[in-house]
Specification:
alpha+beta, four-stranded mixed sheet, 5 helices, globular
Length: 303
């Protein structure tokens, strides 16, 4: 099974093999509804400071969190070096918290003796359209693997200087204080609503559901209106090639993040419970959706 894990906000998927599917009508529908209801700043006057994690990993599965929100994870059966965008975890200027969690490779119960993650934050100015290097922060590395300790965690901080401020999950309710059984049922209901919208091709409802997250992402990654909508369209056209969303069942696990203000459902393999499969190509598309509950509200929202 081939996996596609989309960290950058996910728009829509539908099955193109269902009875009555019309490619021309579907394309017209996509073109007509993907435009944002909320105008995204073209960022012409905004200083565009962009942060990347210059990262290398060896023989491990690792996860990166910025301010207790996952921005990246990867199973590295070997060695890999990468530059990982992290602005999507930065809600505004100030001190940012990084957490690197290292766990055994998929299918293994213990860490490889040589497993590690090395990283540092690099700062760029992308206002001109090019990456203009500004500075790099301190280098870090996880501690050596120790026997009988199944994972490694490294935490650090850096100060970001961005010209935006996002009103997002930080103003939500603490979900850890909610009734757990009720919370899981509500999350399963919300996930299955999205599954139904995807499989029925109800694009407008799905896009409206994730609009806040899309607009926040566009701001944090300095996307103008055209770039945002082009990205949406490309995803829509890619997703409508035989993929079908899988219904959520009770085997899923609730995972909290955002210091208790975000919740998501995960499968036993650690991947998002919201995913699609293409039976013909045996490909799987994973959609990492998170929910929060605004203060004074009783229903979840995608953020």
């Amino acid at each position: 099974m081939k996996y596609f894990y989309l960290y950058i906000v996910i728009i829509l998927i539908s099955s193109c093999n269902k009875k009555g599917y019309n490619h021309t009508e579907n394309k017209k529908l996509i073109d007509s509804i993907v435009l944002s209801e909320k105008k995204v700043n073209d960022n012409n006057d905004m200083k565009q400071i962009y942060y990347e994690l210059d990262c290398s990993a060896l023989m491990c599965n690792f996860q990166i969190k910025i301010n207790d929100v996952e921005v990246f994870s990867l199973n590295v059966d070997g060695q890999a070096t990468m530059d990982i965008p992290i602005n999507q975890g930065i809600l505004g200027s100030g001190i940012q918290e990084i957490e690197i969690r290292v766990t055994p490779l998929e299918g293994m119960k213990e860490l490889n003796n040589e497993a590690y993650v090395r990283y540092r934050v690099n700062e760029f100015d992308v206002s001109s359209g090019d990456f203009k290097f500004i500075k790099q922060f301190e280098n870090f590395q996880t501690l050596p693997v120790q026997k009988d300790i199944p994972f490694l965690v490294h935490k650090s901080k850096f100060e970001a200087n961005v010209d935006y401020k996002i009103d997002a999950w930080q103003n939500g309710q603490n979900l850890k204080e909610a009734n757990f059984d009720d919370l899981k049922k509500k999350l399963m209901f919300a996930y299955n609503e999205m599954v139904n919208e995807i499989n029925k091709g109800d694009y407008e409802k799905f896009i409206k559901r994730i609009a806040t997250r899309e607009n926040n992402f566009a701001t944090m990654m300095y996307l103008n209106e055209q770039e945002r909508n082009n990205r949406v369209k490309k995803l829509l056209y890619n997703f409508s090639n035989g993929f079908k969303a899988v219904a959520i069942d009770d085997t899923v696990i609730v995972e909290f993040s955002g210091y208790g203000k975000l919740a998501s459902l995960k499968r036993m393999n650690g991947m998002s419970a919201l995913y699609l499969v293409n039976a013909e190509t045996e490909e799987e598309l994973v959609l990492p959706i998170t929910f929060y509950m605004p203060k004074g509200k009783t229903e979840f929202g995608v953020i």
